[in-house]
From TrEMBL:
The lineage of its organism: Eukaryota, Metazoa, Chordata, Craniata, Vertebrata. The keyword Protein biosynthesis applies. This is phenylalanine--tRNA ligase. Belongs to the class-II aminoacyl-tRNA synthetase family. One of its GO terms (cellular component) is mitochondrial matrix. Signal peptide: none annotated. It comes from Cochlearius cochlearius. Its main location: mitochondrion. SMART domains: FDX-ACB (SM00896). The keyword Metal-binding does not apply. InterPro entries: aa-tRNA-synth_II/BPL/LPL (IPR045864), BMT5-like (IPR019446), Fdx_antiC-bd (IPR005121), Fdx_antiC-bd_sf (IPR036690). One of its GO terms (molecular function) is ATP binding.
């Protein structure tokens, strides 16, 4: 087995290094900032240094933790783990200087650490500035270690008490650069790992086969990393696919079942009744390659990602994309916001078996405001069943009971938290009580029932966790009048609630530490690999163009795009009407935070500048 190389920095009396030395498969490189003469004069240091050398460890002196690359040849770098216990600039240095020390240390560590390596930093109680510190200092008075580490591309992946009493022979020393001990009660060991870099989306085009021709269309930039991810492929171990499979297996015990996921086009043509146009991702095909209605109905399969162009064309005040002059609105296409139109088409074409549960599933796309449970893309699962009139209520009850049973069974395999699943009549909800998923579904057609899931940690059932809806429709078909029951589930919301995933963006991470927690066909309680990510607040104020309605959905969508989904909250904090001119000014507060990547203050500042530029260009606001 390869030897694990461990680097220890800032050793005082080398007692910590001596306690690690001798472990099987570990090579210790122990260093300190002082010269050998200065270090050896500390109590017990000479004996620890002797023991280290006897056991084959390297002991180095005058090593500057901010310039590690200078102390190790390229072939001697590649450390698996770096320890820095109780770093300090010395004497009475304040928090600002110690933050600067940590910042330079993390940048230096990145140059000598292997890709999967860890950096361990032990700090006294309160210094780190994380919620794990008890009591917790005010942010400005802490070392802000997670934000500082983010500047060098590190995320906090674990944190636990530093138990000095369990380390054989360990004695802390170095209080104010003297051979004196200091209090380590309540101290914490912070374990950092490398973050994946922030994504930089390049222009892309999605090409699809349509009959005998290939056509290309612009993919909205905010969706570039979410098109064709293959989460619902047969061999996928993504939790949304596992939930889908479990539901299919459970419902097949109660209903004859037919999956019809094949060839569902990503693009939808034409008008969507009652749906706010500004919540749709509109697409324009090349004029000479615009397909016929007949070709559209044949399905668009074999989507393949190539390159991408701009975020979207300009839109008018009604939310329609401005096409070339003379382009009729019927030529407009959009990324499908729902699978319901395809389910309805199956019924209308008569391509169904009465009494059989037809199942459709796939990603759907919707522009929406930035909130914890609002997703511009999620995986929808739709169930369709045509039954004789008068039996629809028993069909609904049977379907709901099986859905409830499936959800409970999935939840019990993962968590011991109490969970409630309710079927609530749509008339009991106010519009303001609906989450984004339910609110949009309400626009498509009348809903009879909402399926709500509530756990001990999920909060309000009404506001946060409507995971599905049920509606019915009457169709005059060839032989008799049938009632069609439609049920729709948001698989992403289910995955979040069942697996304890607090941020929808984590479902789309490309970091392998997410999917590695979910073996094929299993659901588990998710453990975050990025703890206490730093957040940054910026305000923006502007004048709204005279006589125009401000498009808040477009405003939020631009924020999603320019930040790469790093904006987690947008709050209107001030609105001002200038009586003399009639002009209106708005002030919004944006909060930036990543759930899986290192995000630095400098990177956020760049995002904010780009955001200001883009809202000025696209929404024609006048910045203040």
């Amino acid at each position: 087995e390869p030897v694990r190389r461990v680097l220890l920095l800032g050793e005082g009396n080398f007692s910590f290094a001596a306690s690690l030395c001798g472990a099987a498969g570990t090579h210790v490189v122990a260093t300190c900032y002082e010269s050998e003469e200065e270090a050896s004069g500390r109590g017990g240091a000479a004996e620890s240094i002797r023991r280290l050398r006897e056991r084959g460890a390297e002991v180095l002196f005058s090593v500057d933790c901010t310039k590690l690359k200078d102390h190790f040849l390229p072939e001697k770098r590649g450390f698996d783990c770096i320890y820095f216990n109780f770093p300090h600039c010395g004497r009475k240095a304040g928090v600002v200087k110690n933050r600067e020390l940590l910042a330079r240390f993390f940048h230096s560590s990145a140059e000598v650490l292997i890709e999967e390596g860890e950096v361990h930093v032990a700090l006294c109680n309160g210094q780190g500035g994380t919620p794990a510190d008890q009591p917790r200092r005010e942010w400005h008075n802490s070392w802000q270690i997670v934000a500082v580490a983010a500047g060098a591309g590190f995320i906090l992946s674990n944190i636990h008490p530093f138990k000095a009493e369990t380390i054989h022979g360990y004695k802390c020393t170095g209080y104010r650069s003297q051979d004196k001990s200091f209090c380590v009660e309540g101290a914490l060991n912070h374990i950092f790992t490398r973050s994946m870099p922030l994504l930089c989306f390049k222009p892309m085009i999605c090409e699809i086969e349509l009959g005998s021709r290939k056509v290309s269309y612009q993919v909205p930039e905010v969706l570039v990393d979410k098109i064709n991810r293959g989460f619902l492929e047969l061999k996928s171990n993504h939790p949304v696919q596992t939930i889908r499979e479990k539901f299919t297996a459970e419902l097949s015990q109660a209903f004859p079942l037919q999956n019809i996921d094949y060839c569902l086009p990503l693009l939808h043509q034409g008008h969507l009744n009652n749906v706010c146009h500004s919540s749709i991702f509109w697409i324009i095909l090349s004029p000479e390659e615009t397909p016929s209605t007949e070709e559209m109905s044949n399905g668009m399969a074999n989507a393949a990602l190539f390159s991408h162009v701009d975020f979207c064309r300009d839109t008018d005040k009604n939310g329609w994309v401005n096409a070339q002059e003379g382009c009729h609105i019927s030529k407009q296409y959009c990324l499908r916001p729902s699978l319901l139109p395809y389910a309805q088409a199956i019924i209308e074409r008569g391509a169904f078996l009465p009494g059989t549960l037809h199942v459709l599933s796939g990603p759907v796309f919707r522009k929406c405001l930035i909130t914890p449970y609002s997703m511009p893309v999620f995986h929808e699962m739709v169930f369709v069943c045509a039954v004789n009139r008068g039996t629809e209520n028993s069909c609904i009850q049977m379907l709901v009971n099986n859905i409830k049973t499936s959800i409970r069974a999935l939840h019990q395999t993962v968590s011991s938290f109490k969970m409630n699943i309710d079927l609530q009549e749509a008339t009991s909800f106010e519009t303001t009580e609906l989450n984004d998923f339910a609110a949009f579904e309400s626009q498509l057609s009348k809903i009879q029932y909402f399926i709500c899931m509530e756990t001990d940690t999920a909060g309000s059932c009404k506001k946060g966790s409507c995971v599905g809806i049920i509606r019915t429709a009457h169709y005059e078909l060839v032989s008799s009048e049938l009632v069609v029951v439609f049920a729709s589930l948001n698989l992403d919301l289910l995955a979040m609630l069942i697996c304890g995933i607090s941020d929808w963006r984590m479902l789309w991470t490309s970091d392998t530490r997410f999917l590695s927690q979910f073996p094929r066909g299993e659901l588990r309680l998710f453990k975050s690999f990025s703890l206490y990510p730093p957040s940054y607040v910026h305000d923006v104020s502007f004048w709204v163009p005279d006589g125009e309605q401000f498009d808040e959905v477009a405003f939020h969508t631009i924020a999603r795009q320019v930040s790469g989904e790093m904006v987690v909250s947008i709050e209107l904090i001030d609105s001002f009407h200038q009586s003399e001119t009639g002009r209106k000014s708005l002030c919004y507060r944006l909060t930036f935070q990543s759930c899986d990547k290192a995000l630095s203050r400098q990177e956020v500042a760049g995002m904010q500048l780009l955001f200001r530029k883009e809202i000025n260009r696209r929404l024609r606001v006048t910045l203040r």
